[in-house]
Fold each of these.
Amino acid sequence: MIDFSGENIVLVGALLLFVAVMAGKVAYRFGAPALLLFLGVGMMFGLDFISYRSVDMTQFIGMIALCIILFTGGMDTKFSDVKPIIGPGVVLATAGVAVTAFVLATFVWAICPLLGIEMPFPLALLLASTMASTDSASVFSILRSKKTGLRERLRPLLELESGSNDPVAYMMTILLIGIVSHGSGNMGVGMGLLFFVVQMVIGALSGYLIGRLAVWTINRINLNNASLYSVLLLAFIFFSFAFTDLIKGNGYLAVYISGLVVGNYKLVQKRPLTVFFDGFTWLVQIVMFLTLGLFVNSDELLHGDVLLLSLAVGAFLIFVARPAAVFLCLAPFRRFTTKARIYISWVGLRGAVPILFATYPLMARVDQADLLFNVAFLGTIISLLVQGTTVSGMANLLGLSFPERESAFEVDMHEDMKSGLTEVEVNETMLENGNTLREIVLPENTLVMMICRNGGEYFVPQGSTELHVGDKLLVISDRGEELASAYENMGIDDVMEIR
């Protein structure tokens, strides 16, 4: 076994990252969740090569990684996309987590005596709370790899839910650890609810204000070295979490709200910042998943009572608890079809967060904390195996998927530019008056910048350039409404706006 210390850290870390990236490539090709293979790599190295069992370090790595992941998720969420579904999204992220936890806890409390395990209801609810939030990051990596879109605004709904439901699960976990550790007499239900509301309100308000402060600072600081903008934004992320936690708010909610604010305001160096945080988020996810895989004790997972309870919990969570929460929470919202509700239920995928939250009882030395952690770990594996590998297939089966069109052009426009970029495909109606570019009727102040032909041949056109059906045109214009009318006259209804 390699001791996880000293100069070996660099060698082992590089090897782990290399193997994890290769595993991620395999997962991307076969449509499997990359998280599953990252965990597998960590477990494999933990069996024979690396001795690692630090709860403190695991929790610290998880905290740092979760801050980055939540902030990036908020930053990538366009408020214009989530605004139409913000009601059901917020209900799923709050009440949905609570309903899932209570339904699952009731099942765990009822089944444990049959397996010879003594587990009071508060402890069963603690286990259920650690597993109550969803992680759809791997879901959308699968959908994007297959170029699959979702109808009925399901993608922004699931992105909003998965990005904002971790704070609720975190709060429930912390509250229940206090109740289980010190007895319900020290923290009654009323005090617990008040604590929960105060934490969420302070977290949301702090996150919004720090997000606005980050936008104001970055837009006015005028750094000579553009690379330092990423460092500055990192400082705001960690400040948002730590400061909010210091004033008794929910730091994870603050981080997500800060990211949502930063992502939806005009920002200097926004494109480079987005690229940096996309890569950095993958790095911290890999590190967190590998760490959790290294941390687990594989021998404990093979105990009969752990295996039976984990299988029962995983199956009940997938087929009963999650669907019950979804159908109950979405009952007031008539816009979703039954098929859409079934799909939302199915993609309640568990990820690294339940495993991370399950380390908190270990830190607090709660009774049966090892059992809770192992069940949460195996329950996550079951969710990834059953749901994670069938995300795309279930969307096709329910008739909710459609081929997602990708842009043929990658363009980075400054946000202050008034002109709009669109991409359209040449059809026969467009060529009725002639097949050269000068014979195409376009509004004033409108220019075809580039043509993509046969999927890979790019060139700048002239007025005499002959157009072919299927050519893709990159068009820039100051006359957006007139151009839209021209497209309509040409029979073009599939117009892609490039931001």
Amino acid sequence: MPKSKQKPVETPSEEFVPELDPEAREAQMINLAVRQAEKQLREGTAPAQIVTHYLKLATVRERKELEILEQQAKLIAAKTEALESAKRIEELYAQAIDAMKLYNGQGIDEDDEDVY
């Protein structure tokens, strides 16, 4: 039986243009590192550190930790939204109090405006 030919793993070309934006550059470098790790794993030359890294990613514990991090991010976003909402409500109460003062003929004191 003839051997099946594997596609060679792409290597960075000579025409590699580094990104100027630091975040894009970091993503580019991560991509290169992952490609190199993949190449080493396919060739069987990957050091134990790389093998261990990818084995850890495949564990149930790692998936649970990622799930927990996602839930924590949602919780932080909800708390931020609640704080912003509370601030808007406080501003509305202040406006309502000022409107009631005007309605009652009290007017708005110069000092009261600084409080809100």
Amino acid sequence: MQQIVSAQWLHNHLDNPNLIILDATIPKVVGSAMAKEKRRIKGARFFDIKKTFSDGDSAFPNTLPSPMQFEEECQKLGINSTSFVVVYDDWGIYSSPRAWWMFKTMGHQNVAVLDGGLPEWEKQGYETEPLKKEAITPGNFKAQFNPDAVKNFDDIQSNIEEARSLVIDARSADRFYSRVPEPRADLRSGHIEGSINIPYTEVLENGKFKSKEKLKEVFRPLEKETSPLVFSCGSGITACVVALASESVLENDKAIYDGSWTEYALLTK
């Protein structure tokens, strides 16, 4: 299965009985609201990253839930082990790759991100509908957790000394180089020692992923890099954007630093 699909592709496969469409939208700014009445692609189900699909006991935002929690919540959404999952968000490309990464981490390979998200879907004139509650038949999804897809604080700390992996930070260059303060008031500026900066906006163009040829240029400095890649950002969301973009052009092993700069900065004060 493709990992990034077009609006036309999705529209052409709407009759697939195994298809599950998930809306993984989260606000870009805490407390913000969408500028218009919330609508969804017809039949989409809400994949709530901030609440349902995060570890509520974690001290850090957006933390990966346990395999058991992920499995149970996916079953509630009617997802089966054979489901063909397509994820989108209302911003174009922002939080949907986080859902894609979670599914891959939990062993579900049949998952893709809708390129351009809801804006592209609407631009193509395809059908949307208002939000509504619907009865969902529970699915039989089973999680098969892959621990190699996730890195924690200790992994990052030891990597600074051993340099086994290359850490790629998806935050803006201004945040990476401490030219502006972090959005979170209690968070210091800076970056992980030895990491490099590829802002997630560099892999996007007009709300969609850049072409493979343009992505090759973005990742050109890494074409001879053989080390595993670890993607980081502010809180584990946009790291997944760059990770997904790299899938088509880099064969390195890849993982996400789940706590990202929020965790690292707080634990290394």
Amino acid sequence: MYNSDYIVIKALEDGVNVIGLTRGADTRFHHSEKLDRGEVLIAQFTEHTSAIKVRGKALIQTHHGEIHSEGKK
């Protein structure tokens, strides 16, 4: 069974990209969202989603803790 944990992503700037990547032999993009400052996305790892990429300044919360991604410099 796949890990079905949820993660919370809160955009700390406009234009944060959240990209879901597929599971399997070939990793591919299968979904993307663009968040503006203050918007929140709740995402889940599923049988189709093995990784989630966050591009931009955001707060990411999981049951393991919190991490801040950095924006462009």
